[in-house]
Design goal:
The structure holds 2 protein chains of 2 kinds.
Chain A lengths: L9 E5 L4 H9 L3 E4 L4 H7 L18 H14 L2 E6 L8 H13 L4 E4 L2 H10 L4 E4 L8 H8 L3 E5 L6 H10 L4 E7 L38 E4 L13 E3 L2 E3 L17 H6 L4 E4 L6 H20 L7 H12 L19
Parallel strand pairs in A: 1-2, 1-11, 2-3, 3-4, 4-5, 5-6, 6-7, 7-11
Antiparallel strand pairs in A: 9-10
Helix pairs in contact in A: 1-3, 1-9, 3-4, 9-10
Chain B lengths: L3 E5 L14 E5 L10 H13 L3 E5 L5 H15 L5 E5 L2 H7 L5 E5 L1 H4 L7 H4 L2 H5 L3 E4 L5 E6 L4 H8 L6 H8 L5 E4 L15 E6 L1 E6 L4 H5 L12 E4 L8 E4 L2 E5 L12 E7 H5 L1
Parallel strand pairs in B: 1-2, 1-14, 2-3, 3-4, 4-5, 8-9, 9-14
Antiparallel strand pairs in B: 6-7, 10-13, 11-12, 12-13
Helix pairs in contact in B: 1-2, 2-3
Classes of the chains: A alpha/beta, B alpha/beta.
C-alpha cells in the first residue's frame, strides 16, 4: 500500500453552487469539479447533455459569475478545481466552449475535463495554463490509447470505470509521469461512458413536482416552460425494457442513499498509483455530497490504520452501513473483481 | 460518385458465399473476446485473397491484452495481404495500425462520435411533440404549461454531424494516412461536410447506440466465454423509443434501412451491408 510519509490521496467532489466549495473542502475534498450550462447555451443547444454529460440546471452552474465564484472559492479553500467540458462537440460549438474555458482560466480554475479530440487540438493550439484531464468520456482502455491522448497535453487521466484495478495498474506503470484518477463513489452506470450514445434529457413525469425553469408570458394563462422532447421518459439506464415476456432492466440502481462504492478498494487503488478519487453526483443535494466526501475520507483512514492490506474491509462495510443505513452489496461494488466479496 | 458496396460477413460462418472481388469486412467492433482466433484469420485471409476480394478488418476497443491479440491478427493478415484496411475503434489500436505499412487505418464508428439515440429523431417531429404539450408541476407547486421548443438549426446540425468532422481533427488524422470515416446511419439523419481527401462509409442496417460494461450473454455463461456465445440477439422494446433496440452481446443497436437524404453529395461513397444482422 502507498502509505509513504506525506502521501495523501485527493478526493474530487462535485459542486453545482459556489457555496458548496468550502463545505466540501472542509469535509475532506482536495478538489472540486463542476459543469456549466448557461442560458445562452441552453437557448441554442438545449439544456440536455450538450456541454457536459450532465443535463439540466440542477447539475450545472448556470451563471458565468457563479462559475468564476467556484474557481475563486476553490482558491480560497486551498483546493484545486476542474470544469467538465467532457462531451463531443460539433465544430460550430467549439468557439463558445473555448470562451467558457477562458473564463474559467481567468477566474483561477485549474483544469478542464475533456474528451473531444477537436477541443483537445484547439486547446493545444491556444496553450492555456489550464491542466487538461482526460475524462472518462474519452474511452481510453489501454496504455497505447493513453499514449495517443498524451500528445495533446494530458496531465491526468480519469480511468474508465469498466477497467479492473489490475488493468488500471498496468496503464499507470507505463505512464508514471502523469496523474491518474478513478471513480470511487456514486453513478456506476451499466453502459461504458465513452461508448454510450444514449442522450441525457429532461423528463417531466406525470404528477411529480420537479425543478425546471419557467417564465410568465402575457399571451399565456399559465407560466410556460419549453422542452425539445416532451416524450422523454428517462435515461435509458433507468428504463425498463420489454424483451418478449421478460422485463429487462439495465440493472442500474442509482440510489444516492445506497451508492455505488469502491471504498474497499481504496488501498488497491493507492497501491496501483491512482491517487485521485472521484465522487460522482453532480446535481445531488449538498448534504449528500458532504456525506460522500466524509465517508471516503473515513474509509481511507480505516485503510491506512490497518496493519495489513485487506483487513479493514469489514470495518469499511460497517462504515457504509453506518453512513447510509443499509448494507453494501456486490451489485453496488465499483470494482467487484478487485474489491469486496460476498459477506 | 460511384458507390462501393461492401459486405460485413460473420467470420464464424465459414459456409457463407462470398461475391468474388467484392470488398469484405471481417472482424468485431464491440468485443475483444469475439475476435477471430489466428487459425480462423488465416483461413479467411487465404480464402478471400484467392477469390480476389479486397479486405477490411474491423477491430474493437481493447484492453492491453486485446492489443496483443490485435497485433497478432495484423501479423497474420500482413503475411497474406500486401495492403488492407483496418477499422480502428480504439485510439490505441489506431496508433498500432498507423505504424504498419500494409495497413490503411479507417476511423471506426466508435471513434467517430455520433449521437445515435433513436429518440433524437422524435425531437425533430414537430406535430408529434406538439401533441404532447401538457401541464406539469414545478417543485415550488406552480402548475406550468409544458410546450415544445423546436431545436435551433445549430442544434440540428450538432445532432446530425459526427464530432470527428472537424477540420482540425481531420487535418491531423490525414497526416497519419487516414482518409475514411466509418459512420452509423442514425434516424435523425446525417450532415457531413468533409474536407478534401476524406470519404465516408455508412453501415446498413445496424446503428450502434451503446455498449454495456458487461455482456449479458457472458454473465449467464458465468465466465465460460467462447466466441460463439454472443450471437444471440434480443429485442428490447420501450414505449418511449420509436424503434426496438437489439441487444447482442455487450452492444445495443437499432436497425435503419433508409439511406439518408442526399448521401451521395456528402462524401459517402461506400455502403457496408452487415450480413451478420440478417443471419442472426
Amino acid at each position: 500500500m502507498n502509505t509513504r510519509p506525506g502521501y495523501k490521496p485527493v478526493i474530487a467532489a462535485p459542486v453545482d453552487e459556489p457555496v458548496e466549495v468550502s463545505l466540501l473542502a472542509k469535509s475532506g475534498a482536495g478538489e472540486v469539479y463542476c459543469g456549466f450550462l448557461p442560458r445562452q447555451w441552453r437557448e441554442r443547444y438545449s439544456g440536455y447533455d450538450s456541454l457536459s454529460r450532465r443535463q439540466g440546471i440542477s447539475a450545472n452552474v448556470t451563471v458565468l459569475e457563479n462559475l468564476r465564484m467556484v474557481a475563486l472559492e476553490a482558491k480560497k479553500a486551498g483546493v484545486s478545481s476542474a470544469l467538465a467540458l467532457n462531451v463531443r462537440y460539433s465544430q460550430e460549438m467549439l468557439p463558445e466552449v473555448l470562451e467558457y474555458a477562458e473564463v474559467w482560466e481567468q477566474a483561477g480554475g485549474q483544469a478542464l475535463l475533456v474528451s473531444d479530440l477537436g477541443l483537445l487540438l484547439a486547446l493545444q493550439e491556444k496553450q492555456p495554463r489550464l491542466n487538461r484531464f482526460l475524462s472518462l468520456m474519452a474511452a481510453a482502455f489501454n496504455s497505447r490509447a493513453v499514449g495517443f491522448y498524451r500528445q495533446f497535453g494530458i496531465s491526468r487521466m480519469v480511468l474508465p470505470r469498466s477497467l479492473t484495478i489490475e488493468e488500471m495498474h498496468y496503464i499507470v506503470k507505463l505512464h508514471e509521469d502523469i496523474e491518474f484518477e478513478a471513480m470511487v463513489l456514486n453513478d456506476k452506470c451499466p453502459y461504458i461512458d465513452g461508448l454510450c450514445n444514449f442522450y441525457h434529457g429532461m423528463a417531466f413525469p406525470e404528477g411529480i413536482r420537479i425543478p425546471f425553469e419557467y417564465q410568465r408570458a402575457a399571451s399565456e394563462q399559465k407560466p410556460v416552460t419549453y422542452a425539445h422532447d416532451l416524450f422523454y421518459a428517462g435515461h435509458a439506464c433507468q428504463l425498463k425494457f420489454r424483451a418478449g415476456k421478460e422485463i429487462i432492466n439495465p440493472d442500474w440502481d442509482n440510489d444516492f442513499c445506497r451508492p455505488h462504492c469502491a471504498a474497499c478498494c481504496l488501498q488497491k487503488l493507492a497501491s496501483a498509483g491512482i491517487n485521485h478519487w472521484k465522487i460522482g453526483g453532480r446535481g445531488l443535494p449538498t448534504e449528500v455530497k458532504i456525506k460522500a466526501v466524509k465517508f471516503i475520507k473515513d474509509a481511507w483512514n480505516l485503510a491506512v490504520d490497518s496493519p495489513e492490506e485487506g483487513i479493514p474491509c469489514q470495518e469499511i462495510k460497517d462504515l457504509y452501513k453506518d453512513t447510509y443505513g443499509r448494507h453494501c452489496s456486490c451489485e453496488l461494488c465499483y470494482y467487484p473483481e478487485d474489491g469486496m466479496v460476498e459477506v | 460518385m460511384i458507390m462501393d458496396y461492401a459486405y460485413w460477413i460473420d467470420w464464424q460462418n465459414t459456409r457463407c458465399e462470398i461475391l468474388p472481388k467484392a470488398r469484405i469486412y471481417l472482424g468485431e467492433e464491440c468485443c475483444e473476446k469475439r475476435l477471430p482466433p489466428p487459425k480462423k484469420v488465416m483461413y479467411w485471409a487465404n480464402r478471400l485473397h484467392d477469390q480476389g476480394n479486397t479486405l477490411t478488418f474491423i477491430t474493437p476497443f481493447v484492453s492491453d491484452a486485446g492489443l496483443i491479440q490485435v497485433n497478432n491478427i495484423l501479423d497474420a493478415l500482413s503475411s497474406i495481404y500486401d495492403s488492407y484496411e483496418v477499422v480502428c475503434n480504439d485510439w490505441g489500436v489506431f496508433s498500432l495500425v498507423i505504424g504498419r505499412p500494409s495497413c490503411i487505418p479507417l476511423i471506426g464508428r466508435l471513434l467517430s462520435r455520433q449521437d445515435t439515440d433513436p429518440r433524437l429523431a422524435q425531437i425533430l417531429d414537430r406535430p408529434f411533440q406538439e401533441s404532447l404539450e401538457r401541464d406539469v408541476w414545478h417543485v415550488d407547486g406552480t402548475p406550468v404549461r409544458l410546450k415544445y421548443k423546436p431545436p435551433s438549426e445549430e442544434y440540428k446540425t450538432h445532432l446530425r454531424t459526427p464530432s470527428i468532422i472537424n477540420n482540425r481533427v481531420l487535418s491531423y488524422l490525414s497526416k497519419t494516412g487516414s482518409h475514411r470515416l466509418e459512420l452509423n446511419n442514425p434516424l435523425q439523419g446525417l450532415k457531413l461536410e468533409l474536407i478534401d481527401g476524406w470519404k465516408a462509409t455508412i453501415y446498413i442496417p445496424d446503428v450502434i447506440v451503446s455498449i454495456k460494461r458487461h455482456c449479458s450473454t457472458c454473465s449467464i455463461s458465468l465466465g465460460s466465454l467462447t466466441p460463439n456465445c454472443c450471437n444471440l440477439s434480443a429485442e428490447w422494446i420501450h414505449p418511449s423509443f420509436p424503434v426496438p433496440l437489439h441487444s447482442c452481446g455487450n452492444a445495443l443497436y437499432y436497425l435503419n434501412n433508409v439511406l439518408p437524404d442526399g448521401f451521395e453529395d456528402m462524401g459517402i461513397d461506400r455502403i457496408v451491408l452487415n450480413m451478420r444482422i440478417s443471419s442472426t
